[in-house]
Design brief:
260 residues; alpha+beta; Methane Monooxygenase Hydroxylase, Chain G, domain 1; 2 domains; five-stranded antiparallel β-sheet; two-stranded parallel ribbon; 50% helix; DOCKER_Lobe_B; guanyl-nucleotide exchange factor activity; DOCK4 protein; DOCKER_dom; coiled coil
């Protein structure tokens, strides 16, 4: 199987390090490569055996099932990791000069999509990659995706909390804290400085729709957070009240910094 690429489904709850060790035990003469970059020609032509192992993210085929309201979470979780043909991994990199004050301005993502010969899981736990596609996502596209994912994550946690599917509200508390804290210390405001300023808008006339989309997502996030804090207030235990109050205070700071 020289110079072939496979996607393999590890054991349940198996960590990447454990999987890597298991593979190296199976191929005792192999040299493990410590990065996910495309190997150069010398590696492909080498006599020695190399193993390159890294984590990939499944791309579900049934997007409409995942986005439809009213479908139980356990069914959604099933579709997120089963019947999957396509997987991807992202490699962040900086193009041009890196702004020390605001790294988002130059943060590009190289996204590689791997398409398999057959969907996982199948008879086997691993299948060969038939095709790989590589695209570059601009800093603005990257920002849009980060916000879309975060808004979706917040919505899911809030609805689980509302419908009492969550015995422990810590995941919601941590998520609210992470988003509000990041926003107060830069987060969304950094996006404003990078993409909503005259200079960027004039230099990138083709990005008009995307800038509008990012603006919508920013406002949407503020609405989700406000609703999330209201839900959180109803269920937060006594000992976490001070943290809740801190979040509410920080949220007001965030709103005013966004000009809402």
């Amino acid at each position: 199987t020289q110079n072939k690429e496979f996607v393999c489904r590890g054991h349940d709850y198996e960590r990447l390090e454990a999987f890597q060790q298991r593979m190296l035990n199976e191929f005792p003469h192999a040299i493990a490569m410590q990065h996910a970059n495309q190997p150069d020609e010398t590696i492909f032509q080498a006599e020695a055996q190399y193993l390159q192992i890294y984590a990939v993210t499944p791309i579900p085929e049934n997007q409409e099932v995942l986005q439809r309201d009213g479908i139980p979470d356990n069914i959604k979780s099933f579709y997120k990791v089963n019947h999957i043909w396509r997987f991807r991994y992202d490699r962040p990199f900086h193009k041009g000069t890196k702004d020390k004050e605001n790294e988002f301005k130059s943060l590009w993502v190289e996204r590689t999509t791997l398409i398999l010969v057959q969907s996982l899981p199948g008879i086997s736990r691993w299948f060969e990659v038939e095709k790989r596609e590589v695209v570059e996502m601009s800093p603005l596209e990257n920002a849009i995706e980060v916000l879309e994912n975060k808004n979706q994550q917040l919505r899911t946690l809030i609805s689980q909390c509302q419908t009492r599917q969550m015995q422990n509200i810590n995941p919601l508390t941590m998520c609210l804290n992470g988003v509000i804290d990041a926003a107060v210390n830069g987060g969304v405001a950094r996006y404003q400085e990078a993409f909503f300023v005259k200079e960027y808008i004039l230099n990138h006339p083709e990005d008009g729709e995307k800038i509008t989309r990012l603006r919508e997502l920013t406002l949407e996030q503020a609405q989700i957070l406000e609703f999330g804090l209201a839900v959180h207030e109803k269920v937060v235990p006594q000992d976490m009240r001070p943290l809740h109050k801190k979040l509410v205070d920080q949220f007001f700071v965030m709103k005013s910094s966004l000009g809402i």
